[in-house]
Amino acid sequence: MSAWRQAGLNYINYSSVAAQILRRSLKPEFRADALKRDASHVRITPWADGKPAAKAQQAK
Predict the structure, then answer these.
(1) May I have one GO cellular component term (predicted)?
(2) For residue 35, which of 50, 23, 53, 19 has the smallest C-alpha distance?
(3) Which of 5, 40, 44, 49 is 20 to 30 Å from 13 at the Cα level?
(4) Residues 6+ apart with CB under 8 A from 35
């Protein structure tokens, strides 16, 4: 069994933690660009009767 499974993580959580640690361990000149990739954006579109009910909202 994988170490991340034994720790109670799924692969998505494990890879997210590993990526955050890697980004924070970079040299300062590379860290700023890498930390920008740490943010994620989600677009939520409510649906009614098989069609988008309203304009999509962005959530952070």
Answers:
(1) proton-transporting ATP synthase complex
(2) 23
(3) 44
(4) 23, 24
For residue 50, the Cα-to-chain-centroid distance in whole angstroms is: 28
Tokens 């499974």 appear where? 5
What is the amino acid identity at position 59? A
Q: Is 34 helix (H, G, I), strand (E, B) or coil?
A: helix
d(CA 30, CA 8): 31
For 20-58, how does the pLDDT look when each residue is reduced to its tens digit (9 = 90+)?
888 889 998 888 888 777 777 778 888 888 888 876 555
Provide the H-helix boundaries in 1-60: 3-6, 11-24, 28-36
Element (H, E) at 47: strand 47-48
Architecture of the CATH domain 3-59: Orthogonal Bundle (1.10)
